[in-house]
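Appendix B, example 12.
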Amino acid sequence: MDHLVVTVFAPDKPGQVEQIAACIANHGGNWLESRMTHMAGQFAGILRVQVPVQARDELISALQALAKDGIRTQFAESTIESASAWKPINMELVGNDRPGIVRDITRLLTQQGVNVEQLATDVSPAPMSSETLFHANAVLGVPLTLSLDVLKTHLETLADDLMVELVLKSEE
């Protein structure tokens, strides 16, 4: 068996996921995992598919042919993940929105060797004011060699600079 990572982009409308799933199933593929969302009238997703080696190229061609229906695809080879040298940590962050906030947070995480494994962000009006609040929920891959206290200290310093609320929780 072979594994593919597939990203899909399409105008959002009913039936898009079913059409992709049917294409995969019709070519002997097995849909293993996915993350999909609707945003600004568009549908986007990433999924991991298992497919028999002999059907791989035919599946890729069939998924690419969905472009006639407005479904665009891109492909990446799936790699085998080695034994984990990371501990998963949940991060919740809320603060006043401003340009560069994601850059500043991710720069600090990168400097600490932390991998952003999942990230969901949005903005919304603050209760009782006209301020716009930035919200982020993330799963971070923190190196086993990095103390959670050290990471908290760095993030709290940044949190003070950005005027944000920060919560870190171990998934264990």
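Strands lie at 2-11, 30-39, 42-51, 72-77, 86-96, 115-125, 132-143, 164-170. Residues 37 and 56 are 26 Å apart (CA to CA).
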